[in-house]
Amino acid sequence: MSVYATILPLFFLGFLGTISAKDIKGSAFCEFYNDTMCAENEQECSGREECVLHDLEKRNHCYVLWTVNSTTKETIIKLKGCFLDNNDCYGKPFCVENSMKRKNELFFCCCEGNMCNQNFSWVPQPTSEPTEPSVIHEFEPVPSAKQQAITLALLIAIPMLLTISSFSFWCLYRRRKLGYFNEIPTLEPVPLPQPSPNLGLRPIQLLEIKARGRFGAVWKAQFKNEIVAVKVFPIQDKQSWQTEQEIFKLAHMDHEDILHFIGVEKRGDNLQAEFWLITAYHEKGSLCDYLKANIVTWPEMCRIAESMARGLMHLHEEIPANKADGYKPAVAHRDFKSKNVLLKADMSACIADFGLALIFHPGKPCGDTHGQVGTRRYMAPEVLEGAINFTRDSFLRIDMYACGLVLWELASRCTVQDGPIGEYRLPFEDEVGLHPTLEDMQESVVHKKERPLILETWRKHNGLSSICDTMEECWDHDAEARLSASCVVERVATLGRALVLNSSTLIRVDNTNEIITTKESNETAPFGSRTREEYYAQEQRKNKECLISSVHVLPTSFGPIDSYFTNDLYL
Q1: DSSP letters spanning 527-540
Q2: 405 Cβ contact partners less than 8 Å away, ≥ 6 residues apart
Q3: Are residues 329 and 235 in the same domain?
Q4: What pLDDT is stored for residue 46 in this prediction?
Q5: What is the model's pLDDT at position 430?
Q6: Same domain, yes or no, for 273 and 347?
Q7: Is 461 found in the same domain as 421?
Q8: Could you say which residues form the signal peptide (predicted)?
Q9: I want to staple 262 with a disulfide (CB 3.0 to 4.6 A). Which of 68, 96, 278, 345 is the partner?
């Protein structure tokens, strides 16, 4: 009876665990940790990660990768996060490593269920199959119903225990290799009107790491005589690598304000497998890093803001198919921030990092996607509240909220503000610090309705004041009241056209549409066959959507013309 009392509870626990596992349909949230990022004091190296599911037939899991110090026996966590669909993680509500064999002294476990990887353990089990001695014969006679329950428990629990013990750490990654790597060709260059070189013919030499992020590291690399950028994704972020190349391979994505895509590769096997995304390289780096070390002039700010908004507009818009290219659906970026805006040599901007982007195919729902993704600091109020309407326009408006914050970053480092230029600060850095939690952002943005401070000295320059109006309308608490990307493009472009230099002639339009010049000039130049009146009438019609209520791109009262138009504004 003592043997029966010992074994029976174990079998029933296995039976209950099997039943509960059937109710788990993957992980929506996992605990996130990156030892490398934390060692370099990177922001957001730990916290909660939302698992994005792009294929409804698959599941997400949580995982932990750790090691043990051979001297101190201290457990050292290397990585935690979401893990792509894998059969060996099915039905495992707890993160437990059972393998007795370990490769490179690394331990790995995966599980199903929200935040199931908060706790983890190593419970080694022998790989040999447990024998079935005649233990049952030692049981005392039991009633028929109870005997049936025992038999059912044995039939379910024993196969489950055998399955768990039969898969080692090596087998887990070997199965993962067979399940996913075989379907990926060595090279998948995007088809462009002028195809890029076949990367598979020549090796790419990685030179130095330029940046690190949640989804991998960005390297400066050399391919033949060309300097390129290589974004290296670890194995657990394969889904982001797939999403990025899917976005880049859409029709009409070869755009001057979108980072130029070259190709992809898969390097290495098993635990050392890496996924490469090869793009154009821009020496100036991200807008965030540039603003930390540099200030920008008014023409530079207008150029950056317009090209950035134009790239976002191109991403957001649907483009019908034509003879040269196919149909391009609307795309939401979902992680728009100054870190994901790169600066070219001519100070124009291009948008990068589409690992969280969402494609809106016509006639299809957004899918089983989670809205609370991206960088907490740049999350719109509705994202922080978890109150998103899962429609295309809702996701595009979330991008526009973040666009307003990036405009604020630009304005804070622009030379035309009246007074000293302060050190670069992230949006909400004064309000919530450098490492805000989700609760910090909810309190500041949702409950207090705070926004980054716009200094009065910025308003003294009429052009910068118009940018301030634009950013405020981008980050409006009411999502439906926010400006579209096309409207931001028109507003900033209008500021660039506000000053026309024609034989030292300054031209502007007041609220009566009267054209004021400082001296006589050619009646038609630079407007071609149109008169100046016709030109500005067309511009007003073009900007009708953006010039709303009493808010105007160009102020109606300028004061002395020299106080508004500076030499920096000359085109």
Answers
A1: STTS-HHHHHHHHH
A2: 337, 377, 378, 427, 452, 471, 475
A3: no
A4: 82
A5: 94
A6: no
A7: yes
A8: 1-21
A9: 278
3-class DSSP string for 323-368: CCCCCECEEECCCCCHHHEEECCCCCEEECCCCCCEEECCCCCCCC
Q: Give the residues across from 351 on adjacent strands.
A: 258, 341
Number of domains in the chain: 3
Residue among 42, 54, 61 at smallest CA distance from 218: 42
Select which of 335, 353, 399, 476 is catalytic: 335
Query: Which CA distances in Å does 259 have to 21, 216, 325?
Result: 43, 17, 19
Exposed, middle or buried, 325 (CB in 10 Å: 0-12/13-18/19+)?
middle
Distance CA 66, CA 76 (A): 6
Q: At which of 120, 149, 172 does a domain end?
A: 120
Alpha-carbon span 302 to 464, nearest angstrom:
10
362 occurs within a structural domain: yes
Q: Which of 70, 49, 68 is nearest to 60 (CA)?
A: 49
CATH number of the domain encompassing residue 71: 2.10.60.10
Instruction: Specify the pLDDT at position 56.
Output: 72
CB-CB neighbours of 203 under 10 Å: 11
Query: Is 335 labeled as catalytic in the residue annotation?
Result: yes
99/123 Cα distance (integer angstroms): 8
Nearest to 106 by CA among 155, 173, 47: 173
pLDDT at 11: 42
280/88 Cα distance (integer angstroms): 38
231 assigned binding-site residue: yes
Q: Evaluate whether 62 touches 94 at the Cβ level (below 8 Å).
A: no
Q: Domain range spanning residue 436? A: 283-504
The residue whose two tokens read 């920008």 is 296
pLDDT score for 393? 93
pLDDT tens for 94-112 read 999 888 776 667 888 999 9
Residues of the chain with pLDDT under 70: 1-26, 41-43, 54, 102-104, 127-149, 152, 165-202, 367-372, 498-571
Q: What b/e readout covers 375-384, taking b as 16+ CB neighbours within 10 angstroms?
A: bbbbbbbbbb
pLDDT at 518: 39
CA 173/CA 214 separation, integer angstroms: 22
Are 296 and 305 within 8 A, CB to CB? no
The pLDDT tens digits of the residues spanning 518-547 come to: 333 333 333 444 454 554 455 445 445 554
- What is the β-pairing status of strands 95-97 and 75-83? unpaired
